[in-house]
Amino acid sequence: MRIRTVLVVLPLLALAACGSTPVVASSADSTSQASASNQSGPTGEGSASAPAAVVADPTAPVNGPETPAATVANADIPAAEMPSVTGKFGELPTVTFPSTPAPPKLNIQTLSQGNGPAVATGDVLVVNYYGVVWGGTTPFDTSFAAGKTPFDFTIGKGSVVKGWDTGLLGVAEGSRVLLTLSPSDGYGTAGRAPTILGTDTLVFVVDVIAALSANKMGQADAAVQTPPAGLPTVEGALGAFPTVTVPAGTAEPAGIVTTILAKGTGAPLVAGDAFLQFASYGYDGKKAGTTWENGGPQKITLGGIPELQSLLGIPVGSRIMLQIPATPEIPASASAAAVPANPASIFVMDVVYQAPAAK
């Protein structure tokens, strides 16, 4: 796949389309749930590799009462009336339920306090989670299962169940929290057959691994490098939005050219999911698109995209420039649609985070 297929709209999209899976918006509406994707996370039907699901009692009522979703997470339920959780941050939790009934509203309990920034609307969250129906013994979904990677989503945008969008706001990065969701805060009055009824209270243990703000940058104190002569000029302080100037006579690249502009002190990038900010310019000096103004850090899966192999080994926190040569049109074939020609382009990227590998 080419690195750029929609450059004129937002150059990132072509990169993301090569290696990442989109998050499907969740809804209490059963029709929306029926069309959700198989991505792991509290958004759709769950992954085929998820643990065995809790089987719903066919004699129990399916639909729950019509009540509005919570606008704030409560923390007023006595600890004795909340599930008890064992296991440290990053470990598979064990959930034990009390004999008391489930709370009637969205509740949160901090199990271990992190020291990172507080989660705010629009942040990209990277989390591990364990979900179980109140009183159940088997999770209906979890990212702690073997082969699973942490789940990522943008909070406050309706891409997850309402109880997550509301309940995780204000949680410090690095925290483990316990959430109890009434049906209206989960999958609504219809539930999510066959594992979740419309009367079920959902319980989630969530580890907030990372909270990446929309304006997250690379390191402001990254070590500035001296680029070779004859390249486009990148201006803007580290930790701020970059701008690109293309001096007259600058030659377009014949192949992909990767230049480290400032070297961070984080771990070297490896194959897997990385989060980067982008700004893209043409060789006419015009800005084509930027993630800083459109959505914040974006996930790119490294290791499977030949055009991005040069990013492997670059430390997290770095700012880099990636020059992409022009590509000719590829005519349609019996098995593929035509791919239009693309002009040469310049990407300035801040490497802001790399997600943990699959277990």
Can you walk me through this structure?
Residues 28-70 are annotated as: Disordered. Residues 28-40, 48-62 have a biased composition (Low complexity). Keywords: Isomerase, Rotamase, Signal. The chain has helices spanning 11-19, 30-34, 162-167; strands spanning 84-86, 94-96, 107-112, 124-133, 141-142, 151-154, 176-181, 202-212, 223-224, 233-235, 243-245, 257-263, 272-282, 287-290, 298-302, 319-324, 345-354. Helices cover 6% and strands 27% of the residues. Residues 1-39 and 44-65 have low confidence and may be disordered. The chain starts with 10 loop residues before the first helix and ends in a 5-residue tail after the last strand. The chain is mostly beta strands and 359 residues long. The chain has two domains: 11-18 and 216-354, Chitinase A, domain 3; 38-211, Chitinase A, domain 3, CATH 3.10.50. The strands form four sheets. Strands 9, 12, 13, 14, 15, 16 and 17 form a seven-stranded antiparallel sheet that branches. Strands 3, 4, 5, 6, 7 and 8 form a six-stranded antiparallel sheet that branches. It is elongated, with a radius of gyration of 23 Å.
Low-confidence stretches: 1-39, 44-65
Q: What's the CATH topology name of the largest domain?
A: Chitinase A, domain 3
Order of helices and strands: HHEEEEEEHEEEEEEEEEEE
N-C termini distance: 28 Å
CATH architecture of the largest domain: Roll
Backbone shape: elongated
Q: What is the radius of gyration?
A: 23 Å
Instruction: Report helical residue fraction.
Output: under 10%
Counting DSSP E segments of at least 2 residues, the number of strands comes to: 17
Please count the helical segments.
3
CATH class of the largest domain: Alpha Beta
Mean pLDDT over the residues? 82
Largest sheet: 7 strands, antiparallel
Structural class: mainly beta
Tell me the fraction of residues in β-strands, as a range: 25-35%
How many separate domains? 2
